[in-house]
Design a protein that fits this description.
Layout lengths: L1 H11 L8 E2 L10 E4 L5 E3 L4 E3 L5 H17 L5 E3 L6 E6 L9 E6 L2 E6 L2 H14 L8 E3 L2 E5 L5 E7 L7 H13 L4 E5 L1 E2 L2 E2 L8 H6 L1 E2 L16 E2 L4 H13 L3 E5 L7 H6 L28 H17 L4 E3 L8 H4 L2 H10 L6 H15 L3 E5 L12 E4 L4 H8 L4 E3 L2 H4 L22 H5 L10 H5 L1 E6 L9 H8 L2 H10 L7 H17 L7 H4 L1
Parallel strand pairs: 1-9, 4-5, 4-6, 6-8, 11-12, 11-22, 12-17, 18-19, 19-20, 20-21, 21-22
Antiparallel strand pairs: 2-10, 3-9, 7-8, 7-10, 13-14, 15-16
Helix pairs in contact: 2-3, 4-6, 8-11
The structure holds ligand TNX.
Amino acid sequence: MKKILFLLLAVLAGLPAGAIDQVSYDVVPLPRQVNLTGKAPFVLDTTTVIVVPGGDEQLTYDAFFLSQYVADITPLHPTVSPDKHKKAIRLMLDPKIENKEGYRIDISAKGIVIAGKTSAGVFYGIQTLRKSIPVTKEAQIAFPSAQIEDQPRFAYRGMHLDCSRHFFPADVVKRYIDLLALHNMNTFHWHLTDDQGWRLEIKKYPQLTEKGSVRSETVLGHNSDVMDGRPHGGIYSQEVARDIVRYAAQRHITVIPEIDMPGHMLGVLTAFPELGCTGGPYELWKIWGVSEDVLCLGNEKVYGMMQDILTEVMDIFPSAYIHLGGDEAPTTRWEHCPKCRKLMDEQHLTLHTLQSYFTNRMEKFINSKGRRMIGWDEILEGPVTKDAVVMSWRGAGPGMEAAKRGHDVIMTPNDFAYFDYYQTPNRDAEPLLIGGNVPVEKVYGFDPCAKELSPEARAHVLGVQANLWTEYIPYEKLIQYQVLPRMAALSEVQWMQPEQKNFEAFKQRVGRLARLYDAYRLTYARHLWKQ
Ligand code: TNX
């Protein structure tokens, strides 16, 4: 029926009759305001040009993205031009828009204007527009006349990927970043080091990647006694890492590197056994879990080397935040280590404040370079500076506690946002995973700012992120299966106001989004449509 109406309107507007498809602004995440004016639509066709007045460089990048997005799902491939054009989608900056990432889209028969406070805002307008376009074979596409106004709820909207437990080549990482862009996310948290492999080239210490990046084999299943007998490894050269930073930046995404310390450090210990309390020898872990072998905090060399590593890391990654991990560091080795004991005596530390001593020194170092530290919520267990940003993973509780204490917080609660967990209680129908159960509906229902938080504490919740630990996720199709469509649900948590959210309406919207997943040949979980 709607289609016929548009056809009629198109004919009345003097447009060539012919097959014409139409867009729907029911996209994920749903924009804050969509006002349909009821006037004649804009028709995108072979004569439409994307105009960037004056040819602003960043907006021109954005324009080419839009052109390519259109080409991906329709027979059209609009040209990009700095010059005025009769039939145009115009991209522009508008300083009057308040939110840094906010945008406005004006759609009328004459043309489409996407205006953003910054080019990032324009980019999110482009994402909304691309998601409104149907996957179609028609070369004419009608956009109902409308005004759309939108801005995100949270400034930090992230996804994490563990590239240590399994290594993924740069093109896989880039396609993952494309998924972030599609879901209006702006931060990629890159977990680069762990007990099972050190992945980042460090020029001062080539041994890290020479000795610490290939494990001899990997356990099958949940730490069974069977090994796969195949070496697994891989590294990102600094050149490749910089290329990924650039690739993400073009899509308005910041890459935050994580160098997890002082636990999860067998990558370093394998290459430099003298940095562990027992002196080793160590080897990269072939199994999963929490290793008791961690950095020896009584060894001053550890501090120097970590600083050298962070210096190179900060040179590669311009992000305001650097993630220093800090999770799951058992104290067993420190307890029996003379060097650690000596330091504890000298500095009046206990086994429980020793890690904080280390973390505070590392934090001071990155602060001196103008960066801020993010740490997993374990950093709250000892004395910690106010400036440290807490990533709450053991549920949202530690995050709420930290926000109350005045810390900035990023919520990544395992019970809502661990995408390495199952998505259905029916485990027999799933690949082997770590455990837990986080169906799409659960993700959707997460409220990062629980009612009990005061307005001041709420202001400390920077945003939300989902994590993808890859112990049981060895290849790209499984990455996609684990994150889609849970990422769509997460994007509405990150972007929309809580009162605007509605799971039933989301289900309709994500159905349309799945057509786009199909067009891009993405693998995704279908539980949502099977119930
Ligand atoms: C806990 S979350 C970890 C990871 C594991 C993950 C598995 C966190 C900070 N540490 O090392 O991969 O559980 O879900």
